[in-house]
């Protein structure tokens, strides 16, 4: 622990503390009052409040808790992603949970606590704290996956997530222990400064530790071959939870990976090859498996694996440009992926729905506007101009080419072309599918409209006027070098 | 120091083996605990031999113990649900979602 | 008018938006809006053309920064030089004619409004592509063109063949796009900018090494190969005939396929910088042109003949452009006319090919078949259609003084100094004249071969014949702007490098006329006079005929060599994966799935995959399906630790990793075999990867 900044500075964690307080408050109040409709709003207030508090810290890097917590633009950028994802998921969840008669108030604190965990993960410069954040995030997520308490699918999802999650965490911990053994500290800044010495003196521990840590986080971001849990868990979990899973924990995992492997252990150039291989495996397997899926949630699960693969391209490239490209891509991905999931949530809210792709048939006739939005999100996922998806990929791949990773880019571009096939299939079903029976209408609630508007606006704005987002992403840097 | 590390590694491997082979969900939970404890041994060992001037490793070990407890709570709750809905906690049977 | 030339693509876009959101239910109004928008665009383009002529070749550029960023800087804007102005005019005029024509052709179609909105969207994308001022924008519009072509080709999606053709077009062109985007990214890396003028200045200054430039040139040309249906990606274009005929006219005459040629012409500086890249372009163009022309000889579907004719003519243009690049790369002061020839032919071809397609549409509209063997004698019933069709055929054959004559002549002139190219160019000209007049004679002259269809035939309505007549006018006169005697003709308007004046080359003119006339004459003797029996010819050249009729077996080769083996391989891999995994899983002792069910599932998915066809290309990598989801957590954890151990071994010794990998496979196989010998559930409790 660094003695130079020997102070606690609680104020740098105000957003997290605020969220925690609101979460606790909801837990207490939820038990007291019979009428619990306002609790979702309370959760929203908490998330938006935290968002405001977070934004106030922009461009004012600080450090606290003896250097263990590091608030810089990087962490704030990611915190904004987590909080936005939290807000959108909360908006989606309320009506969905009601439609399925499982609106229990505990859901909202769980989202809040998980978000706190992610925020801590992104704002930390110490392996211990990153681990703590990871666990604060994971434990609520295990519960959320099983939120359909009486549904075997949801149980299965939950137990798989739990076993796999804990298993990967054990690897991560072992890795951290080895790094600690090699460096005598868990402070990333000290590891970074002493890296050359450490490699020559205790290289074996350091490398093994780094690889084990990589495996642990590879699990969280669903890198192939540590992705096996993803489709099953995504399919079984309640749809808004799946939406949240596909964005927030993944972004958190990437925040931690970027922080550890580009900042702390950035000197270990040999790891680049492993990222290279993982990136290719991840996007290829994700895309190829997605083609054959008949369930939308499962298809989007594989699609999210593929997107993780694109982001991993940035990891093998390394450097500031790659960090901001990855950050930009994650922000864009948050919007269009959540948008896609919002529509799936709507479809899935109808009684008897299993979220099969065929359920989209006839959508364009009954809900032309919804179908148009679906097309927008799918095009964004497929990376078509003028959506954020296209721009994000363009930026990411041009960074890779700039760094000389031409073959990696070729494979990535090829993959993104393959992905067009299955995304387009959904649009084709929604527009051209001949419905055997009438498309059962979905019930629109204001909350879901709000979600659709936010996500569609985000997708289009980041695609048409990426200037602003890019500037933010460019400023999204680690404060201490 | 190596003996301690070897002990931890063996414990970890036993944990992995348990996770892989136990059909009983509780057994898997116990094996996971074993893996966490193997890490704790590592941490404490390193603290003693590498950085005895501070207590990072030991503090970390305490954190891990706390978190392992929290995980166990959630895990047991999930297993309880399984027991209710599946009439059993045999992990081998739980595979309705696949392909 | 130049300052707001960005409005030209906006008109059709507005029409699209209005139709989709407001007037979908009012069919007449929708088509009126769409046509009005395109007419405004035509007028605007004419003004732009006048303004560009007034600027004497100084390009106009308007650019707005899109993103200014130290890491990546992109802009959006318009770039108008003579080439752009010509393209604008061609695209808007052809699109206008096609839309008016569609009023008659699509009469009574249930998705009328949607059809017109798609046409508008397509026109928008194409116009955007033309006015773009940098490679980033052109790529965006390039993709949009591909996407909207999918909608249009698959417009009658109830027909499976139509939606398959749409998919095929989309996927095949995307293979080319893959190269295109890589080329653009490389360009961005080496030139540091994507703006046309800046890129070209940098390239001309030698800022990009020649080797890299060759790579960039070939990558960018890949995009053109896909979009302009060049060998070996030409297979989509004939299938794309499944779309409504006006759509074929639009896609194949003036827009989508022209985009590739336009791209090559636009980035000519890159090819001038690299003789190798330019030669590749020329050779691909020649191969395509010859191959497609020979296939067109024997086709009996009126639209397919035209489709192959299009591929062939595009090959011509590409070849001319490539030769120009090659000549200038070798000698900066070369007097090659290739650039002028290619772009000039692009313009004249747009008009007469649009006319041919629309004429064919008119015929199909009358007799309700595409098969020319069932037509014949139609000139009696369809005066305007047959007359305009003959004009277009004369034009494409290159008969003085129609527009095709002037441009084809220049292409022949461009091959001066390359005897092989020249020989094939003339041969292709001969074949072209022959098959076009075979088509004409079989369709319009002689005795009706299907009396019933003949009796029902009738001239098409005014909305269809008017565009025909207008395009016939252009097919005759549009080429006159490029007459070699003009001192300010097309050649001194659209050019790159230094301005040269090319005088007329009478020998070339004479030779190419003789070639064209003899081609027509042969067709006349065979199909009109019937002095030589076509059947006898067919018998004599049976193997060649079969080869051509089957389009050189391209689709079959792709199917046999690429798709089938892939599928078989996939099936094999899948099967073995499934078995291995089953063995593994069973060995650990908890897997109790019924094997027959799994097999059925796999079959279902494999067959699904095969049926879904388009996924086949990507199956190249499907052996990566090492880890099949079997739903068992413990198997998942097994995979995790196996991989984890693999990663660490890889780090320590990459060679060791290979052994490890083989070991894992062997262990898995061994367990599988053990399981085969002991069908009852195995409960051996050992670590597989210890």
Q: What class, by secondary structure content of chain C? A: mainly alpha
- Helical percent range of chain C? over 70%
* Secondary-structure element order of chain C, N to C: HHEEHHHHHHHHHHHHHHHHHHHHHHHHH
Mean pLDDT of chain C: 76
Overall geometry of chain A comes to globular
Basic shape of chain C: globular
Q: Report on the biggest sheet of chain A.
A: 2 strands, antiparallel
Oligomer: heterotrimer
Verbal overview:
The complex is a heterotrimer of chains A (481), B (99) and C (690). Chain A has 481 residues and is an all-alpha fold. Chain A has one domain (3-474). Helix content of chain A is 75%, strand content 1%. Chain A contains 19 helices and two strands. Chain A has helices at residues 14-32, 38-56, 73-99, 107-122, 127-145, 152-183, 188-193, 195-220, 229-236, 239-264, 271-291, 296-317, 319-348, 363-366, 368-382, 388-402, 406-432, 446-464, 466-475; strands at 62-64, 69-71. In chain A, strand 1 and strand 2 form a beta hairpin. Chain B is built from three helices and no strands. In chain B, helix 1 (2-21) runs antiparallel to helix 2 (25-49) and helix 2 runs antiparallel to helix 3. Chain B is elongated, with a radius of gyration of 17 Å. Chain C has 690 residues and is mainly α. Chain C has a two-stranded antiparallel ribbon with strand order 1-2. Chain C starts with 6 loop residues before the first helix and ends in a 13-residue tail after the last helix. The model of chain C is unreliable at 573-627 and 678-690 (pLDDT under 50).
List keywords for this structure.
heterotrimer, B: 99 residues, mainly alpha, Helix Hairpins, 77% helix, elongated, C: 690 residues, two-stranded antiparallel ribbon, 70% helix, disordered C terminus
Architecture blueprint of SSEs:
The complex is a heterotrimer of chains A (481), B (99) and C (690).
Chain A: H1 14-32, H2 38-56, E1 62-64, E2 69-71, H3 73-99, H4 107-122, H5 127-145, H6 152-183, H7 188-193, H8 195-220, H9 229-236, H10 239-264, H11 271-291, H12 296-317, H13 319-348, H14 363-366, H15 368-382, H16 388-402, H17 406-432, H18 446-464, H19 466-475
Antiparallel strand pairs in A: 1-2
Helix pairs in contact in A: 1-2, 1-4, 2-3, 3-4, 3-10, 3-13, 3-18, 4-5, 4-10, 5-6, 5-10, 6-8, 6-9, 8-10, 9-10, 9-12, 10-12, 10-13, 11-12, 11-17, 12-13, 12-16, 12-17, 13-15, 13-16, 13-18, 13-19, 15-17, 16-17, 16-18, 18-19
Chain B: H1 2-21, H2 25-49, H3 56-86
Helix pairs in contact in B: 1-2, 2-3
Chain C: H1 7-21, H2 27-54, E1 60-67, E2 74-80, H3 82-105, H4 112-131, H5 135-153, H6 160-191, H7 196-204, H8 210-227, H9 236-239, H10 245-254, H11 256-266, H12 268-272, H13 275-296, H14 302-330, H15 338-367, H16 383-397, H17 403-414, H18 419-444, H19 451-456, H20 462-477, H21 506-528, H22 534-540, H23 542-549, H24 554-588, H25 595-611, H26 633-652, H27 654-677
Antiparallel strand pairs in C: 1-2
Helix pairs in contact in C: 1-2, 1-4, 2-3, 2-4, 3-4, 3-10, 3-15, 3-20, 4-5, 5-6, 6-8, 8-11, 8-13, 10-11, 10-15, 11-14, 11-15, 13-14, 13-18, 14-15, 14-18, 15-16, 15-17, 15-20, 16-17, 16-18, 16-20, 17-18, 17-21, 18-21, 24-25, 24-27, 26-27
């Amino acid at each position: 622990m660094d003695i130079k900044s020997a102070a606690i500075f609680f104020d740098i964690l105000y957003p997290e503390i605020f969220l925690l307080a609101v979460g606790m408050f909801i837990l207490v109040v939820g038990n007291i009052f019979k009428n619990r409709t306002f609790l979702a709003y309370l959760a929203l207030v908490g998330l938006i409040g935290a968002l405001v508090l977070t934004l106030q810290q922009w461009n004012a890097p600080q450090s606290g808790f003896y250097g263990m917590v590091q608030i810089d633009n990087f962490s704030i950028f990611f915190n904004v992603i987590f909080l936005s994802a939290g807000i959108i998921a909360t908006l989606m969840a309320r009506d969905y949970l009601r439609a399925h008669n499982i609106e229990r108030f505990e859901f909202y604190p769980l989202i809040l606590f998980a978000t706190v965990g992610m925020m801590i993960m992104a704002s930390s410069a110490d392996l211990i704290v990153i681990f703590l954040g990871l666990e604060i995030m994971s434990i609520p997520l295990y519960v959320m996956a099983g939120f359909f308490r009486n549904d075997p699918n949801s149980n299965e999802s939950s137990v798989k997530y739990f076993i796999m999650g804990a298993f990967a965490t054990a690897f991560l911990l072992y890795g951290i222990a080895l790094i600690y053994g090699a460096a005598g500290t868990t402070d990333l800044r000290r590891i970074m400064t002493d890296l050359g010495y450490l490699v020559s003196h205790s290289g074996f521990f350091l490398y093994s530790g780094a690889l084990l840590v990589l495996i642990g986080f590879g699990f969280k971001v669903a890198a192939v071959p540590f992705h096996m849990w993803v489709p099953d868990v995504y399919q079984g979990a309640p749809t808004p939870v799946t939406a949240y899973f596909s964005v927030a924990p993944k972004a958190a995992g990437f925040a931690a990976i970027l922080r550890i492997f580009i900042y702390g252990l950035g000197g270990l150039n040999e790891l680049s090859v492993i990222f290279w291989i993982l990136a290719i495996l991840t996007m290829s397997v994700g895309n190829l498996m997605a083609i054959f899926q008949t369930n939308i949630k499962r298809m989007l699960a594989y699609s999210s694996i593929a997107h993780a693969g694109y982001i991993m391209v940035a990891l093998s490239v390394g450097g500031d440009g790659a960090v901001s490209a990855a950050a930009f891509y994650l922000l864009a991905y948050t919007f269009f992926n959540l948008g896609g999931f919002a529509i799936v949530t709507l479809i899935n809210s109808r009684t008897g729905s299993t979220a099969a792709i065929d359920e989209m048939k006839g959508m364009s006739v009954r809900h032309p506007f919804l179908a148009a939005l679906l097309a927008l999100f799918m095009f964004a996922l497929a990376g078509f101009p003028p959506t954020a998806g296209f721009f994000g990929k363009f930026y990411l791949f041009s960074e890779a080419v700039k760094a000389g990773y031409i073959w990696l880019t070729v494979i990535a571009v090829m993959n993104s072309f393959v992905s067009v096939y299955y995304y387009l299939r959904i649009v084709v079903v929604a527009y051209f599918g001949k419905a055997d029976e009438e498309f059962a209408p979905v019930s629109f609630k204001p909350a879901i409209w709000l979600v659709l508007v936010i996500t569609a606006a985000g997708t289009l704005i980041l695609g048409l006027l990426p200037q602003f987002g890019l500037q933010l992403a460019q400023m999204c840097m680690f404060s201490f070098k | 120091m190596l003996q301690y590390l070897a002990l931890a590694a063996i414990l970890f491997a036993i944990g992995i083996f348990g996770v892989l082979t136990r059909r009983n969900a509780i057994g898997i939970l116990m094996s996971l605990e074993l893996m966490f404890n193997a890490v704790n041994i590592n941490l404490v060992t390193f603290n003693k031999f590498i950085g005895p001037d501070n207590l990072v490793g030991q503090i970390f070990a305490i954190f891990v113990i706390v978190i392992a407890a929290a995980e166990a709570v959630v895990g047991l709750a999930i297993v309880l649900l399984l027991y209710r809905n599946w009439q059993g906690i045999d992990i081998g049977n739980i595979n309705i979602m696949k392909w | 008018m130049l300052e707001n030339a960005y409005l030209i693509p906006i008109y059709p876009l507005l029409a699209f938006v209005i139709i989709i959101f407001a007037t979908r239910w009012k069919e007449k109004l929708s088509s009126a809006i769409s046509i009005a928008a395109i007419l405004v665009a035509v007028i605007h383009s004419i003004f732009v053309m006048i303004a560009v002529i007034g600027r004497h070749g100084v390009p106009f550029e308007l650019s707005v920064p899109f993103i200014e960023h130290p890491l990546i800087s992109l802009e959006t804007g318009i770039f108008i030089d003579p080439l752009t102005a010509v393209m604008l005019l061609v695209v808007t005029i052809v699109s206008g004619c096609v839309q008016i024509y569609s009023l008659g052709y699509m009469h009574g179609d249930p998705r009328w409004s949607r059809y017109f909105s798609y046409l508008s969207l397509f026109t928008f994308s194409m116009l955007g592509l033309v006015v773009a001022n940098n490679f980033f924008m052109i790529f965006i519009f390039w993709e949009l063109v591909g996407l909207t072509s999918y909608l249009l080709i698959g417009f009658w999606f109830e027909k499976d063949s139509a939606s398959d053709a749409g998919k095929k077009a989309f996927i095949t062109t995307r293979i080319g796009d893959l190269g295109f985007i890589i080329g653009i990214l490389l360009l961005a890396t080496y030139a540091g900018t994507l703006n046309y003028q800046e890129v070209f200045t940098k390239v001309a200054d030698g800022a990009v090494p020649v080797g890299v430039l060759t790579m960039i040139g070939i990558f960018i040309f890949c995009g053109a190969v896909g979009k302009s249906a060049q060998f070996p990606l030409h297979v989509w274009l004939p299938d794309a005939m499944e779309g409504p005929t006006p759509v074929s006219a639009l896609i194949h005459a003036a827009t989508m396929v022209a985009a590739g040629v336009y791209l090559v012409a636009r980035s000519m500086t890159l090819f001038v910088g690299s003789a190798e890249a330019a030669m590749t372009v020329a050779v691909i163009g020649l191969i395509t042109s010859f191959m497609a022309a020979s296939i067109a000889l024997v086709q009996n579907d009126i639209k397919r003949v035209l489709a192959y004719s299009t591929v062939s003519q595009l090959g011509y243009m590409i070849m001319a452009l490539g030769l120009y690049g090659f000549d200038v790369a070798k000698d900066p002061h070369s007097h090659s006319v290739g650039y002028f020839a290619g772009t000039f032919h692009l313009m004249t071809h747009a008009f007469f090919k649009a006319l041919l397609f629309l004429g064919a549409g008119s015929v199909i509209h009358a007799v309700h078949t595409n098969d020319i063997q069932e037509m014949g004698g139609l000139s009696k019933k369809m005066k305007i259609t047959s007359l305009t069709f003959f004009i277009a055929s004369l034009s494409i054959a290159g008969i003085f003084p129609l527009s095709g004559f002037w441009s084809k002549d220049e292409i022949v002139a461009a091959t001066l100094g390359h005897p092989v190219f020249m020989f094939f160019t003339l041969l292709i000209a001969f074949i072209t004249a022959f098959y076009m007049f075979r088509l004409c004679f079989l369709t319009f002259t002689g005795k009706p071969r299907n009396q019933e269809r003949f009796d029902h035939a009738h001239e098409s309505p005014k909305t269809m014949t008017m565009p025909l007549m207008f395009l016939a006018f252009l097919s005759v006169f549009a080429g006159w702007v490029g007459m070699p005697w003009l001192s300010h003709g097309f050649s001194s308007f659209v050019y790159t490098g230094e301005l040269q004046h090319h005088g007329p080359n009478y020998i070339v003119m004479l030779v190419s006329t003789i070639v064209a006339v003899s081609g027509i004459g042969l067709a006349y003797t065979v199909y009109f006079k019937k002095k030589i029996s076509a059947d006898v010819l067919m018998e004599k050249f049976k193997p060649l005929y079969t080869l051509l009729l089957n389009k050189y077996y391209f689709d079959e080769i792709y199917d046999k060599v690429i798709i089938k083996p892939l599928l078989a391989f996939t099936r094999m891999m899948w099967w073995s994966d499934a078995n291995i995994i089953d063995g593994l899983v069973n060995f650990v002792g908890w897997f109790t799935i019924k094997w027959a069910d799994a097999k059925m599932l796999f079959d279902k998915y494999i067959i699904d995959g095969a049926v879904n066809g388009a996924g086949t290309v990507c199956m190249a990598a499907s052996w990566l399906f090492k880890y099949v989801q079997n739903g068992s957590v413990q198997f998942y954890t097994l995979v995790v630790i196996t991989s984890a151990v693999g990663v660490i071994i890889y780090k320590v010794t990459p060679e060791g990793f290979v052994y490890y990998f083989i070991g894992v496979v062997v262990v898995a196989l061994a367990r599988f075999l053990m399981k085969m010998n002991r069908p009852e559930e195995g409960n051996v409790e050992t670590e597989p990867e210890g």
